[in-house]
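Note to self: user wants both folds in one dump. Writing first protein now.
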Amino acid sequence: MTSDATLAMQLLVDQWVQAFSAGALEESVLLYTENGAIYSPYGAPALGRGQIRRTHREWLDAGEQNKKIIVVEAHREGDTAYCVAAYAGDYPDEHGNLITESGISVNIAKLQPDGTWRLHISSLNSDTPPLAVSK
């Protein structure tokens, strides 16, 4: 049986995927709290919405397609929820061929006064981080 936390977190990441995939930069950024953060092997930490906007712009400019995020596990305690999620997306390489980048993310969300959830922290862990590939 799927928990309420799993359903809530899957709905939130589905909203993010839909906005991001549509190129709706502001909509994807607003799904994070004002002081949210993204920690990623794909670039410098993004601290706050301004830097999250920059990071999302870089990801959109990279031409990612077919983004998928599946919540594997989630829990909630009061106004905080977290999930472990599997992610994958296809990027064009230097020859235009699509390569799949995948990994696991840990996400923390905060319940807002209006009853909606916002991502607060996302930590991405690539299956093939750049340092592993370059060795």
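First done. Writing the second protein, which came from a different request thread.
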Amino acid sequence: MKFHHVGYLTDNLKNSIESFKILNYKKKGNLVRDNLLKVQIQFLKNSDNHIIELVKPDRKNIGLINIFKKKIFAYHFAYKVSNLEKSLKKLKKKFKIIVNPIPAKAFKNKKVAFLKMKNGFIVELIQK
């Protein structure tokens, strides 16, 4: 399991990009619209190769909108895993699966899954 990024909720991608520029983050790649996950995504990267995934939820994405309404903006950590199914089997003993494996446009349709920790924090697993 290798750390990949922090997921950050926003309702305004342009403003968030400008805010993170102050911290030396720059756009990495193009805006991704993922209709399956009901989000728009823009990755940002700094000179230390730290990545932030700006996530703007679609109006129909009630789960993320509810998190945003609670003013929880940095809401998930993402990890790349070599075997998604094996990692899910191990982690589901302690965490609740909230999104089963699904292809993600932001990762060239490699599968991702989301789990929720007991404290409410979300972990994303990305198939390598």
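Dump finished. Worth passing along: Residues 42 and 99 are 20 Å apart (CA to CA).
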